């Protein structure tokens, strides 16, 4: 894609096989890339979230984790990733002289090992999201902190972030 030299799109590269943006780690880990999520990630998500070494450390995905759970979650985060990438591409075309745009999230989050033939294998997921304060046990205080954090505009330096992702209550049945 022409325009990857534009500040809005740096330091992303475009995978010639998938057409997706990605970030490559520096040597000696240059075989590790971070890409948008894909629906083809369903089997690896199901395997990971049913592994006791993983599920004991996560709080929001349902257990047992079924393929339909992975499809629901991936659909949500794929839409988010596509929207942010499209926002950056649009800014690079419509505002070519503008400073780099601050966006609400990162369009890439799935860590993959890229093989010599160009194929890749999912290794994990590293989403950066606004903190939902799961560690706060008081429901009202948790809600207050979450609402304040969500109300902060994109780019506010006071936004509190967390690594991971939270399943919407519609997917988990949790209405708290």
TrEMBL record:
Concerning InterPro entries, the annotation shows: Acyl_CoA_acyltransferase (IPR016181)
Q: Which SUPFAM superfamilies match?
A: Acyl-CoA N-acyltransferases (Nat)
Q: Which domain of life is it from?
A: Eukaryota
The name under which this protein is listed is Uncharacterized protein
Record organism = Heterobasidion irregulare (strain TC 32-1)
